[in-house]
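Write out the bound-state structure for magnesium ion.
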Amino acid sequence: MADTTTAELAPGRLFIGGEWQDAASGKTFETRNPATGEVLARVAEGDAADVDRAVRAARAAFESGPWREMDGRKRGRLLWAIADGLEARADELARLETLDNGKPVREARMFDVEGAIECFRYYAGWADKIEGEVLPIPGPYLNYTRREPVGVCGQIIPWNYPLQMAAWKVAPALACGNTVVLKPAEQTPLTALELARVAHEAGLPAGVLNVVTGYGPTAGAALVRHPEVDKIAFTGSTEVGRHIQREAAGTLKRVSLELGGKSPNLVLADADLEAAARGAASAIFYNTGQACTAGSRLLVEEKVHDELLEKLLKRAAGMRPGDPLDPKCRMGPLVSQEQLDRVMGYIETGKAEGGAPVLGGDRPEGAGGGYFLNPTIFDRVSPEATIAREEIFGPVLAVSTFADVDEAVAIANRSVYGLAAAVWTQDVKQAHRVAHALRAGTVWVNMYHTLDVGSPFGGYKESGYGRELGRYALDLYTQVKSVWVNLA
Ligand code: NAP
Ligand code: MG
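---
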């Protein structure tokens, strides 16, 4: 592949009211290629002034633009055209995602870009099916409900699945007739800008989708506080989610939060251990562990611990991080120096609390300026240890054991998080019992990490609230109006 020049990359400007604009301050910031540490592009540093401009564009498009009058079927066709636009540029987008985020290009193409395309197609189908109900009320009345858009939606997304997170947020919001101001993560702003370009080329009216790149505490915070924003949808850390909920209270915005996790992966003694080992490896090492659903706690029934660990170590030892632009690469670097430092900090904490990694814990040779880290496994970790409780967001697995299923479920549920969980067993009754007992928004049985745009996704407990994907996302992006008609 040819070297990348910034010329082939996104314009690096804000997309507001259907136009590419510089930040009012004229400032820019850099985004780096995590595989080399080199600067990839400079992007406009939007702040409160730019957010205000974008919100006003979104408000105008919502109140008086052609969007408001457009029927659902036509909105659906526009969403479908966006999906076509993404598909036409799928390879280029995958490469851009890899350059900006560091994930293996094969996965960027197969999952991230494909997932974004599917998401726009799926919600294209919903756009003309946002239905109300007629309710049987006593008296001479006709009473019916309408599902109306919420208005201007501020959407703030993280860096781990940049294009896919943008699609999960933008597609249902637009399907329901809202307008959007999207703030991508500072580490990975490029594919969100490309999405804006594709949407514009597909014919989305000006102001319906605006993208403001910039930093969380400035651009993100301004969006959360802005009185003309009706709803905030956020994916990211629990800490920032908590802050956003507090800040949004000032203007009583609707808020939905998809936050962190420390997802337990339970292996019962009767499981197919080969499959469980394969699943456990992908549960924690997929996306270099930078997944909110990462299976970062492996809970194994004591009597199969040694056998499972041996199989897992064999698999994990073969997973060498490498150049993510190589189509054969299965594991890329972490997203940033900051994230690498954070994860290394947790490895040090794991050691300080008495553990020694049975695998990894170090950086691969020849990592150069890239943020690479070897797959890391700590064995026989106390469920109370820091690395078994806190979200690390890196390729670091904590293995613990249990004596019986009740203990397994108790340990699994002893967490402030509740995003996802998995259980491996061949006993169908046990599988369902455990699936029902686990307090998590997603539970996998004999599998891990599978998601689909048709199925709801979101957290229990401090992993957030609100469900994205499926028809559930329509609840996030509509409000119900009850209309009464006097028939007397
Ligand atoms: P983060 O700070 O929560 O970032 C998520 C998004 O929120 C980014 O767009 C960020 O902007 C923005 N943001 C930050 N502060 C904000 C504020 N005060 N007001 C409004 N928006 C704000 O996550 P991070 O710092 O990138 O990563 C830290 C840790 O969060 C990770 O190590 C991981 O544990 C967790 N995390 C979880 C998920 C998930 O999917 N659950 C995703 C990413 C990270 P900027 O990036 O521009 O600051
Ligand atoms: Mg970057």
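---
Residues 156-160, 183, 185-186, 215-217, 220-221, 224, 235-237, 240, 243-244, 259-260, 292, 342, 391, 393 surround NAP (ligand 1) (CB under 6 Å).
Residues 216 and 447 are 35 Å apart (CA to CA).
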